[in-house]
Design brief:
This protein is α+β, with helices and mostly antiparallel strands and about 110 residues long. It has 2 helices and 4 strands. It has a 4-stranded antiparallel sheet. A hairpin with a 3-residue loop joins strand 3 and strand 4.
Length: about 110
């Protein structure tokens, strides 16, 4: 891929940090990276409490947070979204309450 490695690392770390926060009693954090046709996909998956359906449309908005006061600024996912799109990619999320969440970073393969 053609992307800023430091920025992609920052996004992955932010997504992993959120995943860890979603598993306060422990759980499993899984990273996957693989090529698929014309893109590379990086997945960050947790077995945390999941994202409420009514919040899914808001999670990438700046300053939106479900964390208690003093625990989060609501900028992490907005910054991740900006980084990924700035590098020509796409950020997607799948989540099931009580099962966990998977964030997928899609980056185009370099031609």
């Amino acid at each position: 891929v053609t992307a800023d490695g430091g920025q992609i690392q920052q996004a992955v770390i932010a997504l992993a940090t959120n995943a860890i926060d979603a598993m306060p009693d422990g759980g499993t954090l899984t990273f996957k990276a693989f090529a698929q046709q014309t893109r590379v996909i990086i997945e960050i998956q947790d077995t945390g409490f999941g994202i409420e359906p009514e919040n899914m449309s808001k999670i990438f908005e700046p300053f939106f947070t479900t964390k208690e006061v003093g625990k989060g600024t609501g900028l992490g996912l907005a910054v991740c979204y900006g980084i990924i799109t700035e590098n020509g990619g796409r950020l997607a999320v799948r989540s099931n309450i009580g099962v966990g969440t998977t964030f997928s970073i899609f980056l185009p393969l370099h031609k």
